[in-house]
Design goal:
The complex is a heterodimer of chains A (387) and B (135).
Chain A lengths: L2 H12 L4 H24 L4 H12 L2 H12 L5 H13 L2 H8 L5 H24 L9 H17 L3 E3 L2 E6 L2 E3 L5 H12 L6 H17 L3 H15 L6 H25 L2 H11 L10 H13 L19 H34 L3 H25 L7
Antiparallel strand pairs in A: 1-2, 2-3
Chain B lengths: L1 H13 L9 H13 L4 H11 L4 E2 H10 L10 H12 L3 E5 L5 E5 L1 H12 L4 H6 L5
Classes of the chains: A mainly alpha (387), B mainly alpha (135).
Chain lengths: 387, 135
């Protein structure tokens, strides 16, 4: 490429802000100019004239650069931003309502909440700045960080709540749920890596599963397992292998479940029966279900008025129940709508996005979100068992 | 009246438009623009989609479009790339690179569907193809 061509390319790319677009537009147009030049030389023009002609045929570089810039400028997904802000705002409601009812120390929880919202916003902004594709290389690092978190909780816990160990450093509590995002990033890389064989992936999964079960935290283990198996379906292994890999453990767990049923302890059976038939176990294992049904039916469309009753774990595990109780069904429907819009938006994006790694990230992230969302709502409606 | 207008034109040529002079090249460009406006965008989109049933680079596409007598991209081949990039962003075509730095474009499922729809329904062609250029 001589001066004419180079000037043209420089002028076009100068108007494009996105670094990535600059590069691929430059390469593509350079290829075009080279081809056009070749054709003109074959038609008998001198090299200089051929290049001049090729550039002339392209039209105005300024106009082209401006238009391509418009096409390739990074865009902000305002719908997701609005949803995020709304969801974060609604996150303050349980604390406020519980504070009003005089059931908890508002200042302490509010301070915590504000810290987490600021952290969340910072992470969201950070993710907007970086190119997520750069993370793919660090799959192993993320896996190691995940393993490290789980091992430290297992080996050096300094707090234990309900039999589950935690590490508490000042105001920060490290729990096993925090390892999940790292494993999520790791699996997105692993599943996009065609060098990894099924047995490699199997060992990687079983080792991480073993660590989760050592803690032990059943709900986190369940969320993690669901995430890995859903991502598996979008992996480089293909749907056929994914089907086999999914069906075998399901069969094994059914057999395991039947074996468990025949050898289960009395209290474990009670918990399952309490879920299946809460009325008969109302003062034992069925208590939570009966209580939830009572609370839900007293809420009505616009929430409870008058004396408010105590709900256990009202701002954590049973947050959806407590919000329904305080603000009514209409509010609950609104909440479900907002959270479902997140899912719908992510699905739409996953269809549009180019590149396998991005799809895996979206699918895995969506599973992490959907499993917890469905579980929370299903539990309150009495469709799914409480832990 | 006729004569009066003619007189006005003559006198304007001597006064206001005296400085105005079209070079040969400008004259050509004006004529080209006039001719171009007879091509409508729908036919161009349709031609692009049909040509992209089989994989092509932007350069090949430009040559073939010219071969079909479409002049819209003459002296304005760059615009073909804005069109291609927009079609790709809207999911009608997909692209792949080879090691020489050539970028190949090819119709995607969505693109094939819209092409079939537009060909079967010439009355609504304009409306159907509008979807292609959505921002």
């Amino acid at each position: 490429m001589n001066k004419k061509g180079e000037d043209f390319l420089k002028e076009v790319t100068n108007h494009i802000k996105s670094k990535e677009a600059k590069k691929f537009v430059g390469t593509e147009l350079e290829f075009h100019l080279r081809q056009a030049k070749k054709t003109w030389i074959e038609k008998g023009l001198s090299e200089v004239d051929a290049e001049k002609k090729a550039v002339q045929e392209m039209g105005s570089p300024t106009k082209l650069g401006l238009e391509l810039n418009k096409l390739h400028r990074p865009r902000i997904d305002w719908l997701i931003v609005i949803l995020l802000v709304t969801a974060m705002g609604l996150g303050f409601l349980p604390i406020i309502s519980l504070g009003d009812a005089g059931l908890m120390d508002v200042n302490h929880f509010l301070k915590n909440k504000v810290i987490f919202v600021i952290l969340g916003v910072a992470i969201a902004l950070g993710m907007m700045m970086i190119d997520y594709r750069k993370l793919e290389k660090f799959g192993w690092l993320f896996y190691i960080v995940g393993v490290f978190i789980l091992l430290s909780i297992h080996l050096f816990p300094n707090v234990t709540v309900n039999g589950e160990p935690f590490i508490k450093i000042g105001p920060i509590v490290i729990e096993c749920l925090m390892a999940v995002p790292f494993f999520f990033l790791a699996w997105a890389s692993f599943f996009n890596n065609s060098k990894l064989k099924v047995w490699h992936l199997g060992i990687l999964f079983l080792f991480s599963l073993y660590l989760f079960l050592m803690i032990p935290n059943l709900s986190t283990t369940f969320i993690y397992t669901m995430m890995v198996f859903v991502m598996l379906w979008w992996s480089k292994l293909g749907k056929k292998k994914a089907l086999i890999i999914t069906v075998v453990p399901i069969c094994l767990s059914i057999i395991g479940g039947l074996y468990f049923w025949s050898s289960a302890e009395e209290y474990q059976l009670q918990r399952i029966l309490g879920y299946l038939n809460p009325e008969n176990y109302a003062d034992g294992a069925g208590y939570m279900y009966v209580r939830l049904t009572e609370l839900m039916s007293s809420a009505g469309w616009f929430g409870i008025s008058g004396k408010k009753e105590f709900i256990p774990a009202a701002h954590t595990d049973l947050v959806f129940a407590s919000l329904t109780y305080y603000y009514g069904y209409l509010f609950a429907l609104f909440l479900v709508l907002i959270l479902s819009l997140f899912v719908a938006r992510i699905m739409v994006i996953s269809y549009k996005i180019n590149g396998h790694y991005g799809k895996l990230l979206l699918v895995g992230g969506m599973t992490l979100f959907v499993v917890q969302f469905i579980y929370n709502v299903g539990m309150i409606l009495g469709l799914l068992p409480t832990f | 009246m006729e004569d009066q207008l003619k007189g006005l034109r003559k006198s304007l040529e001597k006064t206001t438009f005296k400085q105005l002079d079209f070079s040969e090249q400008q004259r050509k460009q004006v004529h080209k623009k006039i001719n171009k406006s007879y091509e409508n965008d729908e036919d161009i989109f349709l031609a692009v989609l049909r040509l992209l049933i089989h994989e092509k680079t932007g350069y090949e596409l430009a040559q073939l479009l010219r071969g079909r007598g479409i002049q819209k991209f003459e002296e304005n081949e760059g615009f073909l790339y804005t069109l291609l990039h927009r079609l790709e962003q809207n999911g009608f075509i997909q692209s792949s690179w080879d090691y020489t730095g050539a970028k190949y474009y090819r119709l995607d499922n969505k693109g094939r569907k819209i092409l079939r729809k537009a060909e079967n329904n010439t009355a609504k062609k304009r409306f159907i193809l509008k979807e292609l250029m959505q921002e």
